[in-house]
Amino acid sequence: EPCIDTLFGESDNATCPVKDDEYCEEPFPKNQIHKDMCTRREVMSLPVFCEYSKDGCKETPLWKNLKKHIEECEYRPVECNECQEKTPLNNLANHKETECSFRVVVCDHCSQNIPHCQMQSHLDHDCTEYPLNCPNGCENVTLPRNEMESHLHSCPKRSIPCGYRSIGCEFFGVITEVEKHQVKATDQHLMLALSFSGQTSNENKALHTEIEESKKEIEELKLTIQQLHQDNQRLKEEITPLVKSVTKDMKKKLVTLTERLINLERMVEHQPKREVLEKQEQAISSLKDDIKVSQEQITQLERAGPQGGRSQALVPQDVKNQLKTNEKQMAIQDIRLAELDLRFQVLETASYDGILMWKIRDYYRRKQEAKSGRTLSLYSQPFYTSRTGYKMCARVYLNGDGMGKGTHLSLFFVVMRGEYDALLPWPFQQKVSLMLLDQETFRRHVCDTFQPDTTSSSFKRPTTEMNVATGCPLFISHSVLETKTYLNDDTIFIKVKVDSTNIPVP
What we know:
- By secondary structure, this protein is an alpha+beta fold.
- The protein is 43% helix and 15% strand.
- Among the domains are: 2-34, no CATH class; 195-306; 350-498, Apoptosis, Tumor Necrosis Factor Receptor Associated Protein 2, Chain A (Sandwich), CATH 2.60.210.
């Protein structure tokens, strides 16, 4: 038993704790102590006080029933789930009604339900019906908080500035004081007006001087620009014919060298002697080098354009600009080709039955880009209800948007401007289903279906490339999405189905 362990401690012998016992004078070993079951039964049948007797419990259960009684005792302390304070079980209901600091009470002024511990803060800051005295000292004026702001704008004792504040008067006071001040301070206001007028006049003179100087500088710049333009035009007229002439000569030289090369190769075919062949091969090699040099020169001239091989310092700005324009046009053509290629790719994947099947690869990389703010959302390829029907697409925020940011995938539906909108009924009224496909069992697809709100701007006829997206910010949580059911090989599949029935065909 615990009392024996306390008596002996780490020793093997102990002295009887009963004092003046003639039979227990000597220390006794621990192995001489034996359990007395008879005495145990007697002790277990003795009545004892409850450990919560100091809190009011009058019960005296038998020792063997004490544990069960304590578990059921109505005086045992329990914790209030609102304020976390402990109170006897039989007082818990009264505590929640009259003592708990988080008990709900009704505000006497606005009748709102407020936690008791927040009532004072509610009265001091939030209660719209709490009566307040005018801070300007209006006599017998007590108004609800929600009317006080309006009163302050019309309060007869509010402090207002003097009407001559704009010219330097710093007087503030109530309306009657300001009126008296304006009558008494006429001389002061007149002096302020004169001073302000003089200051304004000086500022106007300074501005006029600055304007005149700016006009002179502008005229000088115009003359300089005109002179530079004339110089550039003259240089352009001089260089352009030169470039054309040199290019023409180089092309002629290239043709001549090519003809000579062909003739020499033919001669080689009819003169098989070794010495002759070696000479002809050397000549051919030399001609090929000349042709290569000529081609490089022509390429450089064509790249240089109207510069004609002249030093960059002598090339007019107009010519440089023309070259830059040509380079930009070539770049624009490349971009247009890329756009056309992308457009063909989109057309190849477009559907015309009102169903979009969208495969999103590299999920984790794209989600990280959304977290970093680099690419917040992705748009799908367009799809249509028919060849001449509505044009639509889907928009997804892999890291969530609005209420779902950081915790959910947000999925939206977008109505786009199409080629045949003028022939279709508006607003858009077709039922829409947004789905995330199950890649494991193919039965537990996540789906949300809605009927468009015809009063929403999201479903009116588009006046820009696309309307405002509408859908589900909390479409699916990341914890559910990022399982093998919906995410496989770092890829997810989104399906959007639009009811294409009852749409008139143009």
